[in-house]
Amino acid sequence: MNPPQPDPHWPHLVAEFSRALSVEGRKQLGLFAIEGFRLLERALATSTPLPHVLLTQRDYENPSPRLGKLLEQLAPLPTSLTFVPEDVLEKLTEDRTLGPVLALAKTPPTPDLSLLLAMWQKQPQRRKILVVEDMVDPGNVGALIRTAHALDVGLFLALRGADPFHPRSARTSMGSIFRIPILRHDSTDTLLQTLREHQVFTIGATSEASILLPNASFPNKTMALFIGHEGKGLSQPLRQGLDLSVAIPMTSSIDSFSVNAATAVILYAMTYPPSLNES
Question: Alpha carbon 166 to chain centroid distance?
Fold first, then answer.
C-alpha cells in the first residue's frame, strides 16, 4: 500500500462512499460502507477485502494506538488509503464516536440457498436459519445478525425488508456481519417451497400461538426460525405455511418482547433444549 498523499480526487471517493449508503449504490459497486475501529478490525480478522479506506491526514500522522495497529495491518494489503478533510469526515460520521476512519468493504458473495441446504443434508445435524420478514429498521436487522452469530446460526435470510448491508445494520451487528452468511429473498412461497424440499423444519414466533415456548419440541435437524415485521409480526401466508408456531410466556402487563429479545430467547431454546426430540 502506497503512503497516502493529499489526494485531489478525494471528492470522488467520498461520492463512492455516499453511493454505498443506498441499496442501489451498494448493488452497483459491490461494496458496502463501514465505519469505525471495530468494524475495520472485524473486517481484517475475516480477510474481507477493503478497497478504500478514508481518514484525515492528522489522524494518519498522529494515530491513536488502536488506529496505529489498524494501519499496520492495512499496510501490506491492496487497499487505497486516502486523506479527506476533517470537516468532511465529521459530516460522514455524523458525530458518532466509533473511530475516525471509514472504509468500503467488498460485499460477500450471496450463498445459493438450495446448494447450501443440499450440503447440510449430507451432514445431518441440528442447524439453524434465521429468517426476518419485512423488517423495517436496519438497526434491528443488524442486532439480529449479531444475535444469530452469537447463537451459531448458519444463515441469516432477509425476506424483503431492510438491507442487511445498510450502514446502520453493519454498525449494529458489531462486526458479526462478516461472520455469518447473509442472503436476501423476495418470495415467501418460493422460500417455503425450497425449505420443504430440503426437509427444513420451519418455526414462527407469534404472540397468538397456542404452543408456549417451554412446551415446544424441536427436531434434531435443520430448522428455520421466522421473525416478522416489528409491528405487524409475521404475515398470514407465512403463518399458514409453517410447521410450528410458538409464543413466549410473559407478564400480562405487556404485549410483546422487543424483536431482538424474542429472537434471542427462541434461538436459545432451539440451541439448548432440555432434550433432543426427534421429529
Answer: 9
Rounded CA-CA distance 168/94 in Å is 12
- Dist CA 70 CA 37 (whole Å): 8
Single-letter amino acid, residue 198: H
For residue 186, report the phi and psi dihedrals to the nearest 5 degrees.
-110, -20
C-alpha cell at 115: 446448494
Is residue 7's pLDDT more than 80? no
Query: Could you give all domains of the chain from N- to C-terminal order, each with its CATH number?
Result: 10-106 (3.30.1330.30), 113-271 (3.40.1280.10)
pLDDT band at 264 (very low <50, low <70, confident <90, very high): very high
CA quadruple 244, 250, 252, 257: dihedral, nearest 10: -90
DSSP conformation class of 30? T
Alpha carbon distance 132, 33 (integer Å): 22
C-alpha cell read off for 213: 415456548
In this structure, what is the dihedral angle of CA atoms 151, 270, 264, 179, given to the nearest 10 degrees?
Answer: 20
Do 181 and 158 contact (CB within 8 A), yes or no? no
Distance CA 92, CA 268 (A): 37
- 25-44 pLDDT, tens digit each: 999 999 999 999 999 999 99
